[in-house]
Structures are given as structure tokens and as C-alpha cells.
Amino acid sequence: MYQFLVNNNPRRLLVILLLSSALVLALLMFASGDRMKPALSNSHQLVSVETALLTLQPSFVEQHRILAQVEHINVSNLGFDISGTLAQLLVDEGQRVQQGQAIAKLDTERLTADRSQLLASLKRKEAEAELARVTSTRTVELAKKKLVSQQIADEARLALTSAKAAVAETQAAIARLEVEQSKTVLVAPFDGMLQKRYADQGAVISAGQTVIRLQQTGQLRARMAVSGKDASALKEGQKITLLNGGESIVAYVEAVIENKQRETRTQDVLLLLDTGVTDLVAGDTLIFSLPREVHVVGSWVPRSALSAGVRGMWQLMTVVDSEQSFLVQPLLVNIEYFDAERAFVSGVFTDNTQIVTGGMHKIQPDQRVSVQQPVLTMQSIGANPLGFNHD
């Protein structure tokens, strides 16, 4: 048969061979297509994304963080009112003292000698005053009998007055010396701890020279500098919350200083810390979160919904319903404020705009996606203002 076809019509044989090859190739492609169909279906499976609806707001509350430094209520540089030699230091740095406790003493030998001298002088002047009294009495009697002149009687009487004044003067000098002797002992004006000493035993101290620095123990306070506008929002006695890392500390506004610093144009606010606070020391820094309302129309979004856009701007990915699926479209926004988990954005969008809330690395513009249900709203993402406590 084959020889017959070749001998009679070679062209017909060529056509038959070509048709047979084409038929075999078509069968092979059909079989391969059936096997690849599940793979192709899997390769075109839509990415599932979580979405939320934007909620437009006319304003937002930002938390303005202000640093407050812990300090002692009283820190005093103590010294003596008089000069002298430092005889004793009764406490050392880091030791605690009670109010009225002796801290240091001056040498009192010179004052003791001066007191002995004044006491002896007092005895002499008291004797002179007694003699003047007796003489005045006798002279007055003689003057009544016309045995002495009135001039002599007057001199005797005034001599007695002068002697009494001399006695009183010496007594006052002794009292002043006793006061000075009492000032040779330096006592603690309040309960505290000796922070630093500036003189050693045996040193000659001048009047008013700082010998030690004493810091008051017990309740602490904090000081912060705020603007005039923020100061007007704080009232004396107001209860507020300070942050120390992750710990909240209750404080009360003690005073708002009505005087602006020339360099910073801020006002100092003094805060009394709760008496239960024991793990703070002077110099620690606390944070006060002061709420401020900013009037900008926009919406809260989770930070995970933001991605880098063109020309250094930020963008959200919106989803638009399109032919039984959703199409991803970029939306450029401005970030007005952000914190650890959220951001307030403004831009050209409407209320209930549907956005992708996460997984921005899995999608790109004009990609079709499927949306997980239910669709959440962004209304509850804004946090309550921190800092004020109206209890």
C-alpha cells in the first residue's frame, strides 16, 4: 500500500504525513492543558486582604509630651552664722538626719573665754552699781539736811543710773555671746540626707560659708516647663498622671509659676508626687502627656496601612468593587500625627472609603484581591486623651 501511494502520488503521501503530525501534536497539547489547568488556576488565585472603612473626623487629639524632672522639695546649703574652726562633723555624706539633730560643731574655746571675761566684768559693774546706790541714798539724806549741795545729790543719783546701765550693757553682751555659742552647733532644719560636704574637720570657716548640702527626704516633687497656653489649662490641686517608663505615677499641681523664663518663654509648673512613690530619686525624668485638639479633617488609620508613595509621600491602598472582585488603587495622604500604633491622615478621600489595613508587601496597584469579612470601621482606633484625671 505504501509502495502504491509512493509510486502513484508522492505529494498525497506528504500531505497525509503532515496531517498526521498535526493531529498528534494537537492531542499532546490537549492532554498537557488538562494537566496544567489546576496549576494555572492556583497561580491566578486572589490574595485575601483585611480592610476597614475610613471615618472622617473634623479634628484629632494629639498627645504633647512634656518632660518633668524630679527634685526634692528642699535642698539647702548649710553653714554657720559666725566664723571659727570646724571642730566636729557628726555625720558624713549619705547619712540621714532628723530635724533638730546636730550635724557639725565649731570650736568654742574663744567664746568660752570671752564669756568668762564678761561674767567677771558683770560682777565688777554690779559692785560699782551697789556702791553708787549706797552713795546716792546717803547723799539724798544729807541734801535733805542741807549738809551737801543739790549738785552733789544730783551727781550721786545720776552715777547710780549710769552704774545700772553698765550692768545691763554687760548682761546684754553675755546674752549675745550665748546666742553666738548656740550658733556653734549646726542643726538640721528638716529631715533629710547629707548630700555633700564642703569642709573637713579643722578647717577655718567664715560666716556664711557652705559646709554641707542637705536634701529633704520624704515626698518628692517634679518641675516641668510649659508654654503659656498649656499653663492656663493646669489648675492648682489638679490631679494628673505622669509616666515613668511603663509605670503611671499620680501627681497634683502644686503651683503654676506666673513668670515666663526669658530664654525659653516657658512657665514652670510644680507637681507634688504621690506619697506612695518610693523608687524615684532627684534627677529622674518623667513624661507628662498633655492632650491638644488639632482641627484638621481626616481619619485615624493603623500604621500598618501606610506605605511609601511617590515623591516621598505616604499612601494608603484602597479597594474598589470591580466585576466580582476588588481592585487595589493607591491613595496619597498626609500624616498629621502618629504614635506607636496609629496615625491621623488627611487627603482627598471620603467617609467610608475602604482601605487595606495590612500586608502591604503582598499587593500592588491595580491588583485584584479578595476582601475578608467582616469589614471593620476606623472609628474606634483613636485613643482617649492621656494625662488628665478628673477623679
Topology:
Elements lengths: L1 H7 L1 H34 L3 E3 L1 E3 L6 E13 L2 E5 L4 E6 L6 E2 L4 E5 L2 H36 L5 H33 L2 E3 L4 E6 L6 E2 L4 E7 L3 E7 L1 H5 L6 E6 L2 E14 L6 E7 L11 E10 L4 E4 L4 E2 L5 E9 L2 E14 L3 E6 L6 E3 L11 E4 L4 E2 L14
Parallel strand pairs: 1-23, 2-24
Antiparallel strand pairs: 2-22, 3-12, 3-16, 4-11, 5-7, 5-10, 6-9, 7-8, 9-11, 12-15, 13-14, 13-16, 14-15, 17-21, 18-19, 19-20, 20-21, 20-23
Helix pairs in contact: 1-2, 3-4
How would you sum up this structure, described in words?
The chain is an alpha+beta fold. It has four domains: 47-60 and 296-377, conserved putative lor/sdh protein from methanococcus maripaludis s2 fold; 65-73 and 218-293, Efflux pump adaptor protein, beta barrel domain (Elongation Factor Tu (Ef-tu), domain 3, Beta Barrel); 76-99 and 189-217, OB fold (Dihydrolipoamide Acetyltransferase, E2P) (Beta Barrel); 108-183. Helices cover 29% and strands 37% of the residues. Helix 1 (2-8) packs across helix 2 and helix 3 runs antiparallel to helix 4. The longest helix is centred in the first third of the chain and has 36 residues, at 109-144.
